[in-house]
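User: Hi! I'm working on a homework problem where we have to compare a predicted structure to a textbook description. Could you give me the structure for the chain below?
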Amino acid sequence: MAEAYIVGAVRTPVGNKKGGLSTVHPADLAAHTLKALIERTGVDPAAVEDVIMGCVMQVGPQSLDIARTAWLSAGLPENVPGVTIDRQCGSSQQAIHFAAQGVMSGTQDLVVAAGVESMSVVPMGSSVMMALEKGMPFPYGEGWGERYGKQEISQFRGAELMAEKWGFSREELDAYSAESHARAERAIEEGRFEREIAPLNGVAKDEGVRPGTSVETLAGLKTLREGGVIHAGNSSQISNGSAAVLIASEAAVKAHGLTPRARVHTLSVVGSDPVYMLTGPIPATEKALSRGNLKIDDIDVFECNEAFAPVPMAWARETGASLEKTNPNGGAIALGHPLGATGAILMTKLLHELERSGGRYGLQTMCEGGGQSNATIIERL
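Assistant: Happy to help. Predicted structure tokens:
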């Protein structure tokens, strides 16, 4: 099987709900990182064979195949096609998988994997609301009801169920969340993100970090459910952003004078309990390690998306992953989670952190709607 190499990765800053990126059209948001990727790698954009872009709320300004409209909005060659995919929060991580698989199969040599989401312009749940307005019991039909009953299915309930199953107290969740902010604050102060960010609209730094966040300050926040432990402070933030990754074959590397920065080592994707919804990173990680013939201790850096604090906490407990090596520069609780963009953002962060720290292997995983999860292992070169 042919090797797939990561030769470039760039992201926007992650903007908060009312921040500097909140009024940028999603197509322009994605176009910005596509242009930056081409400029930074120096590749001939006409040689790109496809643009695969993750986006969750594909309605309104994010509809009509935003992968294609973003590429054209960036002023890039018309001969390059684009396709937009939805694997919920893992959409752009799946885009990376599809791009790598195209190269590994030998059917493609140069593919862009990207992601975008403007949760300010297209609010979370927009696609669901459109269906509900037409009287459709979306997204769960009769067959679903026969299988799972009429119980609530939501990420918020899933987070509460995880906290209960693994016995995490609110104080433990809040302590994890405060540490996420502290790590992100340190990373920004030390300039760790500067190489990977393409500033946009006057924004050069991630906007979500709240300096000085502590267990005490989080204790004052109201939980989403009475008697629950999940609240805004131990959940990911509503955000806006985009990222793009260039995947190349060995032939493309030679033909275009590119520099491989990492190779895609192992890919996995799994389904998991859709009621708990958020537990998928556990079996996805186990599957990736098994397929890659690696152990958890072989991994130098982990990125496990902080959709809610119980997710990485339960994942680490079950897999044996070190929380010290997980999200070392903060996660989505501090930096934000622009849904369809997050997978590519995490990969960009993972690559740059491996380069900064000198680590060899990095593993990325995230929970996804419907009870799914991707896991990706890369090897720094």
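For your comparison, note the following. The radius of gyration is 19 Å. The chain is about 35% helix and 20% strand. Good luck with the assignment!
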